[in-house]
Amino acid sequence: MTEQPLHPFHRAGRTGSWFDWPVVTAIRRLGRAPAVNAARRLLRRADPVFSVLLAPYRFLGRRLGAAMPKGLYARALIIIIAPIVILQSVVAFVFMERHWQTVTRRLSAATVRDISAIVDLIETYPSDPTYEQIIRIAQDRLGLIISVVPGEPLPPAAPKPFFSLLDSALSDEISQQIGKPFWIDTVGKSNLVEVRIQLGDKVLRVLARRSQTYASNSEIFIFWMVGTSLVLLVIAIAFLRNQIRPIQELADAAEGFGKGRAIEDFKPRGAREVRRASATFIEMADRINRQMEQRTTMLAGVSHDLRTVLTRFRLQLALLRENDDVRAMRRDVDDMQRMLEGYLAFARGDVDEPTVKTDVAALIADVIEGSRRVGHLVEARFEGDPIVSLRPNEFKRCIGNLVANACRHGNTIVVTATHVEGWLTVTVDDDGPGIPEDQFEMVFRPFYRLDEARNLDESGTGLGLPIARDIARAHGGDVTLSTSPQGGLRASIEIPA
């Protein structure tokens, strides 16, 4: 058998019959057809109209989204309770309302039958002008209060209520069973329903208890809805609380680990997916801790070896005769020492320092006092509770880097700190030349240098601002730059407290 060559559609790596390729070709041609292009142009023109029509729905969606709770616990309660309550309301309204509608029509029919019997008695025995026996029988046996008023016309027809099951049921039954002109009053606030029937030259007036003609379901319906909703809410709260608590514990553990706190009492709990996420988080935290320990060990070795070499340089320089070359070499060794310390501090990050409650006001005062001793004019203000949980040495260095950067480029420095609503904010303002706004983020890159060297620390390594941001982010916050009201640069530290 001769093997047929593969169609290009098959050679492309796809499977199918020989009919597939003509179908695909036809679809592609159809996509380029004038009618299809015209439809596309029409849809593009109609897009603004659809946008205007959908604007109210989008606005309502945004408002509803803003009003909805943001927590998982509240949203889960709404997801569970809302559909059940809505379904229950629809079922209860449909079935219970139909049940009470049937009961009301039967009660109205029974009452109208009694009234019809009284009408027959009045028309059959007209010899008694007072109708005392009929009135007595109606009151004692039928529970109806009747009176016969001669020569009185029916009152004018009142407007019917928009929705009244009793009014429609009584009207239908009187028309079917009695078939005489009538007037009814079912809207009054009393517990009685009044019916008047025209009997020739006289009018039969009937007062019946509303409970004889109407079965009200409002109280039972409300009680049913409120009672069952409360039961469902209690069950949902009891169930969801145990399901949400492990997720909250995982979030707290992740937040604490991000701030450098040790994970001690955290254990996987809850549903299988939550346990899996918790176990994965613990493994990740262990790997990060091992890497940090290895990096700390390596940096300790590098620091020891390099400091040994620099110490030998200093000893050799001390043995030489003092001259300009020796002094220049000694300055170079000092610069190397400062640069080494800056590099190691940036790489190490002081991750082993524990988080403790610290008086931030005293810490800032200590930093400012050091700047004042070397002749800088620094002012400080603090608002709120000064006690904050943080790593004091790291945070002091963060503020010190920003204050030192401001002191090198400004004459007047103002440090403002506030602790309100769970956040600690520290701003450092100076009256120096500042930096361009498009460089606010670039100066946080390690070793990045501007012409004015605004991001250089004392060693000239360009690590002052990067170290400050790393410390702030290790506390769960950040460092941002903006233009100071004094005309220079403003550096802001924000961390959760």
TrEMBL record:
Top enzyme category: transferase
PANTHER family registered for this protein in UniProt: SENSOR HISTIDINE KINASE ENVZ, SENSOR PROTEIN CREC
Keywords of this entry: ATP-binding, Cell inner membrane, Cell membrane, Kinase, Membrane, Nucleotide-binding, Phosphoprotein, Transferase, Transmembrane, Transmembrane helix, Two-component regulatory system
Single GO MF annotation: phosphorelay sensor kinase activity
Keyword Cell inner membrane attached: yes
Histidine kinase domain span: 301-497
Species classification: Bacteria, Pseudomonadati, Pseudomonadota, Alphaproteobacteria, Hyphomicrobiales
Any matching Pfam family: HATPase_c
Protein name as annotated: histidine kinase
Membrane-topology descriptor: Multi-pass membrane protein
UniProt EC number: 2.7.13.3
Catalytic activity field: ATP + protein L-histidine = ADP + protein N-phospho-L-histidine
Domain of life: Bacteria
Domain HAMP: 241-293
Gene Ontology CC, one term: plasma membrane
Keyword Nucleotide-binding annotated: yes
Coiled-coil regions listed: none
Membrane-spanning ranges: 72-96, 220-240
